[in-house]
Amino acid sequence: MSAALQVTAFGLALLSTLFLLLATCTDCWMVNADDSLEVSHKCRGLWRECVTNMQDGVRTCDQYDSILADHSVKIVVTRTLMITADLLAGLALATLVLGLDCITFLKEDPCVKLKMCYGAGVILGAGSILGLIGSVWYAVDVYVERAMLVSHNIFLGVHYDFGWSCWLGMAGSTGCFVASVLLTCCLY
Predict the structure, then answer these.
(1) Where is pLDDT greater, at 3 or 158?
(2) Per the UniProt record, which residue ranges are transmembrane (predicted)?
(3) In a designed cystine with 169, which of 42, 115, 135, 174 is the match (CB 3.0 to 4.6 A)?
């Protein structure tokens, strides 16, 4: 039972970590949702902003000036939290691989392997909470920005919704949290 639970938690943690990495690296955290002519599709991300022409499929991206340039708090906090979540999830995966029962590393001391799995679960839980805070922070800020424009009767011709990168970050963080619960609560 313990080996099956470990492998299940490892598979979920691996998939969720990949989701977190993809969410951090991709550029569609906000997407325009009010383009009635369907001429272009605009995505904003943590690192750049891209516009895709729907007629010919040409995609152009504008990199933000510099990582150290003045950016909105939304982008800086989300970048920091997502990169930290990625690093913690990667560390947890490495620790979990060494702690799996099917790996022959430290085979003679099962107590140490169990502690490694537990430690991987704790690290994965911390990373998942940071990733979830970063993803939800960004989503709430997008919602508040849109609500402020609506409450002031300002219509700029386009408003933004959550992009697939934002949803991917939330899904990856949730998956890491479930894997963390499996490793910390159910393994004993």
Answers:
(1) 3
(2) 118-140, 162-187
(3) 135
